[in-house]
Amino acid sequence: MKQYLLLPLACFALCGCQEQPAKETPFKMIEQVDFSHVKITDNFWSPRLKSHVTTTLPVCIDQIENQTGRIRNFENAAKGEGEHSGIFFDDSDVYKALEGMAYSLINNPDPELEKKADEWIDKFAAAQQPDGYINTFYTLTGLDKRWHNMDKHEMYCAGHMIEAGVAYYQATGKRKLLDVCIRMADHMMSLFGPDKRHWVPRHEEIELALVKLYQVTNENKYLDFANWLIEERGHGHGTMGGEGNWDPFYYQDEKPVREMTDIAGHAVRCMYLYCGMADVAALKKDTGYVEALNRLWDDVVYRNMYITGGIGSSRHNEGFTEDYDLPNLDAYCETCASVGMVFWNQRMNQFTGDAKYINVLERSMYNGALAGTSLAGDRFFYVNPLESKGDHHRQAWYGCACCPSQISRFLPSIGNYIYGTSHDAIWINLYIGNKAAFKVDGKEIELHQETNYPWDGAVKLTISTSSPVQKEMRLRIPDWCKQYTLSVNGTETKAPIEKGYAVLNGNWKEGDIIVLNMAMPVEIVAADPRVKGNIGKRAIQRGPLVYCMEETDNAKDFDKSAISPATSFNNRFDVSLLNGVVTIQANNGDQKLSLIPYYSWDNREAGKMKVWIDYKE
To answer: Of all residues in the chain, what percent carry a pLDDT higher than 90?
Structure first.
């Protein structure tokens, strides 16, 4: 079996790529096909979307309404009396859950869920102050203290409210929450901006949210305010408000963003900042931002990312320490950060047309992010280690519940990442069974994608259109794929590869069929030797999925298990195991090891787990 050397993690070494100096990126401007135009129909994601509706959202609603004081904080704020319960940023969890409700309503209309959302929005609106300010923590602990402490997440909470307001408006056409958001944004802009007060939000989020508000209102002032907030960083303004020790690296405030070269500090904060920078760069054609993002991306992916697409190795700062510091047992890998990697890499692909970003998106999505929720959809990981002694388990909720609410808004929107369109092409980025209908050059086109991915590499794409569409079809060839065939209407064809996409030129008409068959063997993956924790170890991957060993399948000599160059592998689909998975058996003489997809671990008996396995030369 061929072995591949990581740099330091699986994404690029598997396809033989080497780290390249950052280059200026042209603006391709690919427009993603919104998930409202995509109906997912496959056997992998469909059950997860169903459990999101039946289980995950009800769990979040119950926690917010009955188990914690999150919704009560809004009720008290509306009355102007009562205590604030929980953490000062707990409003954000309610907004993220509402965003998940909005996304669910788009493809799964539900009058009762919409009624519940309207009830929450009424409470938000009632809690808003006459000047537009809304934040239950300061409303209940002293409005005189607001806007004095950059650590208190006022703009972070406002950003999540804006994202929810935009999503709910797009889902239902109702603008009550959107108007609340506009009043809060205008309130902030009355205080901060050019020739006004400086402000550096110590938890980014408002920046990308303001771009969404700009896109739905067409008000340039919101885009300009997002840009201004990004430009505030690195000039010493962040020292003006906050408590405790101020670490500019932790808050991404050590230098102006255009000069940044290395990721540092809190992982989720970094992701949201980079998303905001990418959004502003795309809309303002800011090559300075793009150059910085290229440097940062190289640093993240080549030197600071786990094989699962997770980032942020340290529990101490929920983020980064030094390059290649990637412990397995103590890995932090916050679920929110993996979702952030999806958000950021989608944006990077959108203005470059480079498949390397979707390769990382896919890795983070299928491994780092998907592990964040149980197969039943009712329990959640905040931290995602790559090794466990048997004492790390998902929980029903957390005091700091950013990850459950993050998953609740991410899962129903995965259709966003499948397709894109540009002036010259239709982009097929992810292989997920679905039916999509959208316009290209004013013409209606439908794509029907059939596949058993990620278990199988065969993909069939059927085109339906009333009149021919003259476009390139660009199909991503994943970095894990070393062999594939491509056919159009039954005839095998060779297509040129551009930035990781197979490019098919054609005048596409009703009934045209494209078939992509990708070989999906088991791969042995080696880490960069500078990753000290993985010296003498290997990981197993098949297609986009990283695998792990659980003690429940390997009780005998779990700690002594090993693979070698002589190890052979078998894989089979087990419909009765973990809602149906392809398992891998490693045959090592008398020793047989059983491996399951990493995302599915900790769904059975408690026990040890590891991704990186001892390797005997």
So the answer is: 90
